[in-house]
Structure formats: C-alpha cells, structure tokens
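Section 3.1: Structural characterization of target chains.
Under the original work plan, the team committed to producing a structural model for every single-chain target entering the pipeline before any wet-lab resources were allocated. The record below documents one such target. The sequence was received from the expression subgroup and is listed exactly as submitted; it comprises 217 residues.
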Amino acid sequence: MTIRVVLADDQELIRAGLRMVIDAAPDLQVVGEAATGAQAVRLARSLRPEVVVMDIRMPGMDGIEATQMITAEATARVVMLTTYDEDTNIYASLRAGASGFLVKDMALDDMTTAIRVVAAGDALIAPGVTRRLIAEFAARPEPAPPTADLPSVTERERQVLTLVGRGLSNAELAAELHISPGTAKTHVANLLAKLHARDRIQLVILAYEHQLIAPSR
C-alpha cells in the first residue's frame, strides 16, 4: 500500500527537497503541495492523504490552526515540520492533534520512517522535541490543575500512563512493571480508548495535565 502525503510549507525549496526524499521511497508518494495552512486544509479534504507534513509557521492560517481543522475532520494524520532551535509552539501543536514532529535537518531514513509510523496510527516525536515539550511544562510557574479526574482508569493503568508520560516504550513499560510486552500494549490500548486519546502523544500530555508527572527542573 502506498502512503499518500501532502506537503505544506511556504518555502518552495523546502517542499522540493521533501518531495524528492519522500517520492524516492517505494511506499510513499507526494500527492499535493500547499504554501499556506488554508491550502493544506483544502488539499486534505479533497485528496484524503494518509499524512500531511505541516510546517508550523506559514502566512495566513498557520500550521497549528490548519492541523486542528484537519484532525477534527479526521481527513488525515498530521506531522509537524520544525527545527530544533525555533518552536515554542510544540505543546499547542500537539494539543491541536499533531501525531509527530519532523525536524528539517533529520536523517532522510528517519524522516521517511516517521511518516510510516504516523500513517500506521502511532505517534513519533524526535528526542530534541520531546525535551522542548518537557521543558515547557517545567518552565510553568505553577502546575496546571487537573482538567478532570480519571475515574475509569485502574491503578495499573495509572501507573502505565505515568510511565508513558515519561517517554517509555511498550518494551520499557513491560520491564519496569514486570509484565509481558503484550500486556503493556493492551494497557496502552485501553488507556487510548478510555481517555479518547488519538495516540501516545496525547497520553503524554494527559499525564502532565493530570499531574502524574512532575517535570525535572
């Protein structure tokens, strides 16, 4: 199956470079390009790609607003395009529904792998972006109050949610809790369903918002 991709970036050279990398993969295909967030939304609606690669900063409607519209309509999954040294909008992007981040200078193999991971329904963010996300929580003067209780979550699932918030993989969860990888995967799937979360990234956010994790300062 070919994974169909829409590229959204206001810089034509960036789009050309990304297209070259993506189209070189036998299972990936660029089916459309957008220079603005509004164009990206229209293309997502008309072309129904599996993935939209979305730059955060674009003229007019930015990538965050466009992502919120695309994910609300479930027309595609969105990977945000960023750089290590810029964005203070990572948290807002994830809350808008982004399933991952691509860094403009990341290795080509890593970039195509990330698109495949997101297309398969998982979530992926580069370690540098994860550090920025955690730093944003840590920089807040007071922890945000929990948005709601988690009455449907069992004590074991709460433990799993805490560890997911710390960035542990299913294999690492299994080792930490002395359970099988299959059981760890089941707990994560149950959390996704109970909390109506799109992916692991939303679970990370929920873990922080419910104060299951205190970011290191």
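Strands lie at 3-8, 28-34, 51-55, 77-82, 100-103.
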